[in-house]
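Question (not urgent): is this output format expected?
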Amino acid sequence: MTLRRRLTTALLTVVLGPVLLGAVFAGGTLATVDVRRVTERLDLAATVARTSIGSLCLQLRAAADAIALTAEPAGRVATANQVVGRGLAAAVRLAGPTGAVDFQTPGAPAQPWVDCGTPSAPVPQAYAIAVHSELRDRAGTPMGVVWAAAPLDEAFVARLAAVTGVEVALGYGDTATAAGPGTGTAVGPGSATAAGPGAAAPATGSRFGRLTSTGHSVGDALDRTGDGRYVRRVGPSPGQPLPLVLMVRSDPPVGTYLLLVAAVLLAGGIAVVAARRLARSTTRPLAELAVGAQRVAQGDLSARVPVHGPDEVGRVAEVVNRMARETQEYLQALNASRDQLRGNLTVLGDTLASTHDLDRILRVILRSAITASGARSGLVLLVDELTGTLVGQCAEGLPTPAVRPGGPAYDPSRIRVPLGRGLLGRVAATGEPRRGRVRRDVPVLTPEEPRCSTYVAVPFAAPGSATDGPVSTAAARAAITLGGTAPPAALGVLALYDRLGSDDFDDADLATLRSFARHAAVAVDNVRVHEEAQRLSLTDPLTGLWNYRYLKESIRREVERASRFGRMLSVLALDLDRFKDVNDTYGHAAGDAVLVEFARRIRAVVREVDLAFRQGGEEFVVLLPETDARGAIRVAERLGAAIRSNPVIAPTGAQGAPPALITISVSIGIAVYPDHATTGQRVLDAADDALYAAKAAGRDTYRIALPGTRPLVTGRVAPVEPGLPAADPPRAGAAAGGASSGPQPPRQGRGR
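Got this back:
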């Protein structure tokens, strides 16, 4: 078989195979979905039908019981007429103990009536559904039976079809007249009725499944008729004594199947034509290429292969032509260099994708750049915006300035070049790359910069930033004149020194270095974004304090540390008093300003080793490592005084309105590990309970918890002994007194 035929066969197999399999799968899925949809619809209709008939039986039961509870015969007759008049039942019949009818409302349906309470005793046909209730005298002696009934007529079936949304038929008799919701047929002896939209369509009992001699269907089954309808037979059950036949018509998607077949045929035709043309267009250039390659292999370097286009085969032909023009040694060197560069890029890509270690990434980038350009050494520096200097990150092959090449290696972190100063500082400040030879170009080098013969330095900026590229001459001049105080034009600088062979770095080296500089920029940006994401995941964006997630980790760590070294850990639970009033009065912008200022004052009071958290809303927590109850009380007093001392200046939200001076106070609960609890969560709970007690004591105060997490207000360092009243709890940050104790407020009221 020729190559053209093999390609044609392979293309047809690859294209038509999935198309045919997809068509078969789509056809089967359509049929399955159609059956499943119809089945679910009939199941839902059966449930709705049972529920509707059960509700009717309950209504009839209530009507019969209401009549049976009437003591006097005349009253029962009057009640029966009222029940019928109000539509609670269509007919009422009063029978004596012997079964004789004493009274029956006019227009009652003919016998027999099917009883809601006896679904296991079917009748050949029924004209009404009924419920009976026994009449008893005061002594409990049976006096007769009260029947309340509703007719099984056209209207009943129509209502049932309307609520179920399918065709409904009563399963009495040997035949059934079926239609959808909305219309109906009259009910007659020995027949089943149905209601629904459209014309009635007679259906024999055999099409709905075998009927018993009494007219009931055998169980709840699903069948399909010859005219494409699905039938569900619902048998009698407690509370639902009627045999029902539920029907729904299924319209198979014939048009969809035809469209699917047409699509498959069309795809097959297109695939055949495309496969033949593609095989021909592919094999013809390959044949020409084979002839040309054979001539070149035989030593005819003047042979040329026709190039028909810029596709893969055309590029292969161009490569063959170039091979005929160039020597074998040059081609081998080119391939070796290309493979080396490809390996370096692979290592670089793997490193960028697998780690956030910035030092490792920059080192791989630097080594790859040195290998690709043939340099002896290199250096990567990043801009420290706080100090306005370039700081060395990693270096390869650099000697110290005081010794000859081959001496001790550089410590990259000791290389610091001010922005705008020296060769590297100017590159970072202006954003313009530079290359050249030291003796010829005489660049100004700072003492920290490496000594070299040739150099190339390329800046790199964050991807997509405004400084990603050269800046204007004015900005560059400003950066140089001000000694680097102007905003830098780059994140850092990638520099290479002393190309092998003593040749200058050329434009190709500069382009290669630019490529590696872009990788370095992406790496630096990704690492910084990753570090910022980690920071944001642990801090509250509004106040800058640690968040609840870091609180759970910190309390566990601090409790373990305190337990290991036998130290104490104090926990302060803080809550702004009546913070809801601030939001309601001045708006949420003012509330946010209060929270920010509150967090600032907390940071100003606590030590560097202390940890402050925003637990949520206006609730805050402060961890005081190696602090006992006395120290915690002093901190609580300082916090209360700092919060109460000066009002918070906050915007009111109204346009043109002056800012509001908001006076705030704080309630504080204190708990100490291990005095009040032995685990981190229990210490937090104890401090929280103490905070509730501080709220109950009148707010703007503090309480310290007792062992067992029972809080008690303290007016001095030592806690008040159990049993003593706390009529004058101290304010947070003030001397004791000034607030009257009261009942503890509910938890949801805290913070008001």
